[in-house]
């Protein structure tokens, strides 16, 4: 994978049609986790994940695709 310096995204050079998201968590989640603020910290991360449509990957409701697929008795890497 290569990182483009003029783009906020990470380009996937193996599969160029799929772009990885790069999130500056420090800038978007100013509240640092402490022993007394877990609920507020959790809320800010949930909001961030919802905003980027990523919450399903974190909570498991949107599972990852299988690593391999089988078609016509041939197993190959899943392009997804």
Describe the protein in words.
The protein is an alpha+beta fold. It is built from 3 helices and 5 strands, in the order E-E-E-H-H-H-E-E. The strands form 2 sheets. A 3-stranded antiparallel beta sheet has the order 1-2-3, with no helix packed on it. The chain has a two-stranded antiparallel sheet with strand order 4-5. A hairpin with a 7-residue loop joins strand 2 and strand 3. It starts with a strand and ends with a strand. The N terminus is likely disordered.
User: Number of helical segments?
Assistant: 3
How are the strands ordered across the major sheet?
1-2-3
- Radius of gyration from the alpha-carbon trace, in angstroms: 17 Å
Structural class: alpha+beta
The major beta sheet can be summarized as: 3 strands, antiparallel
Task: Write down the oligomeric state.
Answer: single chain
Instruction: Give the % helix.
Output: 25-40%
- Strand coverage percent: 15-25%
The helix/strand series, from N terminus to C terminus, equals: EEEHHHEE
Mean pLDDT, rounded to whole units? 79
Q: Any idea what the shape is?
A: elongated
Can you count the beta strands? 5
Report the uncertain regions: 1-7
Separation of the first and last Cα atoms: 16 Å
């Amino acid at each position: 994978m290569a990182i483009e310096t003029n783009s906020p995204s990470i380009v996937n050079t193996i599969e160029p049609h799929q772009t990885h998201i790069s999130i500056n968590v420090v800038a978007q989640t100013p509240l640092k986790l402490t022993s007394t603020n877990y609920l507020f910290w959790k809320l800010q991360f949930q909001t961030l994940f919802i905003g980027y449509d990523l919450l399903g990957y974190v909570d498991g409701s949107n599972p990852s695709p299988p690593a391999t697929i089988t078609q016509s008795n041939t197993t190959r890497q899943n392009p997804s």
